[in-house]
Amino acid sequence: MDRTERTEVAEPRVDSPGGDVEPGNVADLVRLSARSHPLRPAYIYRGVTLTWRQADDRVNQTAAAFRSLGLAEGDRVAVSLSNVLDFPMAYFGALRAGLVVVPLNPGLAPSELTHALQDSGARVLVTSGAGAAAVARVRDDAPGLQHVLVGESLQDAPGAVSFDALANSQPTDDVTTTRGGESLAVLLYTSGTTGRPRGAMLSHRALLANLRQLERIVPSVLNADDVALVVVPVFHVYGLNTGVGMAARRGACLVLEERFDPADSLDVIASRGITAVLGTPAVYTAWSLYPDLGQAFATVRLALSGAAPLPASVLLRFLEVTGRHVFEGYGLTETAPVLTSTLMSLVAKPDSIGRPVPGVELRLETEDGTVVEPGDPGEIVVRGENLFSGYWPDGDGGPDDDGWWHTGDIAIRDDEGDLQIVDRLKDLILVNGFNVYPAEVERVLDKHPDIVSSAVFGVPHPFTGEAVKAVVVLREGSRLSEEDVAAFCETRLARYKCPTTVEFTDSLPTTATGKIRKGVLRGTVSTF
């Protein structure tokens, strides 16, 4: 049997938004859009609109601001912000200055923040006032961090500098860099097999390749005349590249909302004439409960969901009320991120992740590397220009010598060629698209003086796809409650990693070698 079973591979393109120049650095996308349509809106945030020309000037100022701090090309800049205007400015500005961006979840616990800052060697952190206050508590543990820039009030940010003031003091002259292509652009931390987050190294080549791949889909993910609402965190790879990156690639207008509120966001969709929505299953599930959903989505031409499986009931509800499918995509941080989409299918089927996007080769394999027969389960193995360069700092765990990379996800392919995820080799839990590795949570639980042992796994959740469940064995005489365990975790883990359900038991089932049998637990204890 042919082991490759390749899909179509994208040919080199030169039809970028700026004409016949193909960008080599991700920040070039902003410059090209500014040259093609300078007066079109690029970003809308809190009633403020930036045109692409204004955005390009601001990116130049931000790049100059970073250079004024004495940073050398290749230095890391951590950006811990939610969906605010300062995020794309810091992101593109750092890349234009030849720096590496380390996007961080503002909700990280102190120990998680310390690990990311230490491991990446970030010299600068761009954050909010609350984020700066959190950094002040761990500053001594991250000696490489030299500058903290705050994108809002400095009142609660001792030792920080105003990000806006620093950028505003710089000229708008073009800033250039030789970094691009295979140079490292983004370092995104994702849970590894040990439970310690590892930095996935995404090059300019990988990020730009995935944008070109998405550009070839019909209908296009984003067009130049789209007004897009990205209801997914921009520090997540989905919001970062499929949202922020694709909007710049196409010259579309991006509407940024700092926090998700179902009713408010539906008002934004209606009042702004939103034409494209990038969301998560939790977002669509929340929207599906509103009676005015159909009216709000009247202008939306394309609705995309990613980061976790979309419940079939929600997909069918949207089709019934709005007359439109919600198209699902599948990918990983390490693939920049999109690998498959139901936009490639004849119809958006429930529980399907569709087919590979153009330029991505995909096959399903058994453990010994044999390509499975149609209808049989196999691990998703992929190859494409959008793949990462391995894990920081030495490239460990990246694609093999032939460019193939094992995702750890098990899928089947139906008679029409569409894929469906059925299991994971990796024991990851996906909460709203964010990776939670059980070992990381178990390590925290086992530090509690009243917990003898623990087992953590994912259970279905109607809004977040999966939730974290913990089964714990207490020391004799302990009176710990579920709330006590949750409170202990909340001081040591990001909120999405904390158990939402805790069950107590006298013992955990184990194998002959002492390994906890989580499969037995999943079948013998109640689910969420």
Quick overview:
The chain is α/β, with parallel strands linked by helices. It is built from 15 helices and 25 strands. Among the domains are: 42-179, Rossmann fold (3-Layer(aba) Sandwich); 429-524, 2-Layer Sandwich (GMP Synthetase, Chain A, domain 3).
The oligomeric state of the chains shown is single chain
Strand order of the largest sheet: 2-1-11-10-12-13-14-15-16
* Strand count: 25
CATH class of the domain at 42-179: Alpha Beta
Shape: globular
Task: Work out the helix count.
Answer: 15
- Name the average pLDDT: 89
C-alpha termini separation: 43 Å
- Give the helix/strand class: alpha/beta
Q: What proportion of the residues form beta strands (DSSP E)?
A: 15-25%
Uncertain ranges: 1-19, 524-528
Overall CATH architecture of the domain at 42-179:
3-Layer(aba) Sandwich
The CATH topology of the domain at 42-179 turns out to be Rossmann fold
Alpha carbon gyration radius: 23 Å
Helix fraction? 25-40%
Summarize the biggest pleated sheet: 9 strands, mixed
Describe the protein's topology.
Layout lengths: L27 H9 L4 E5 L2 E4 H17 L7 E5 L5 H11 L3 E4 L6 H11 L3 E4 L1 H10 L8 E4 L10 E2 H6 L15 E8 L5 E7 H12 L11 E4 L6 H14 L2 E4 L5 H11 L3 E4 L1 H7 L5 H4 L5 E4 L6 H11 L3 E6 L6 E4 L13 E2 L4 E5 L12 E6 L21 E9 L5 E6 L4 E3 L2 E3 L1 H8 L5 E11 L3 E10 L7 H9 L10 E4 L13 H7 L4
Parallel strand pairs: 1-11, 3-4, 3-5, 5-6, 6-7, 10-11, 10-12, 12-13, 13-14, 24-25
Antiparallel strand pairs: 1-2, 8-9, 14-15, 15-16, 17-18, 18-19, 19-20, 21-22, 23-24
Helix pairs in contact: 1-2, 1-8, 2-3, 4-5, 7-8
